Amino acid sequence: xxxxxxxxxxxxxxxxxxxxxxxxxxxxxxxxxxxxxxxxxxxxxxxxxxxxxxxxxxxxxxxxxxxxxxxxxxxxxxxxxxxxxxxxxxxxxxxxxxxxxxxxxxxxxxxxxxxxxxx
Amino acid sequence: xxxxxxxxxxxxxxxxxxxxxxxxxxxxxxxxxxxxxxxxxxxxxxxxxxxxxxxxxxxxxxxxxxxxxxxxxxxxxxxxxxxxxxxxxxxxxxxxxxxxxxxxxxxxxxxxxxxxxxx
Lengths: 119, 119
What we know:
2 copies of one chain form a homodimer.
Chain A: H1 3-8, E1 17-22, E2 25-34, E3 47-53, E4 55-60, E5 66-69, E6 73-76, E7 82-97, H2 114-117
Antiparallel strand pairs in A: 1-2, 2-7, 3-6, 3-7, 4-5, 4-7
């Protein structure tokens, strides 16, 4: 599959879509635009962010926020509180263990089940 | 980290370099040029290929070979015999379980240990 082409099929923001599995890990695509992702963490799961297009503000608790741009990769380690946002649309690849919940134990308007992400 | 920048530090071909960990999974960068990768499989591990730059010929046993280009992603499922090659230099991200051996149970001139890949 071609990743830019897969992104062209995604219309919603904040709605990760599973595009593949590598053993216990899901490969997901997501479009971020705005500030709807709540502060959250994944107790047992690391989470990889890779920027395909656009820019993403990464906020890590007790650290200085930083901007990620196309081609940048960052791994939020398990249990670390974090939040991402973007003024303009940002296309990202997410890689995380299958057990990871979208917004950790926090539920808000953007929270989606893994069933929805697999559609 | 910036992926194109990380690739600029890699001089050797066929020598995967671990750049991150997502739970039980390694994220690796590799440069492919030539036909030195032997036919092999990973008994228990899926292997993700994502093309950052260049083109890669993917050969899967009993299937028609196909070319992968920049932005293409393909997951070779566990135990499937495969081989990759490239006429010109090709930069790829590999994602696979930590237990995966570079060239499966086949050892040849390009086989490297995970210790070398972690350097």
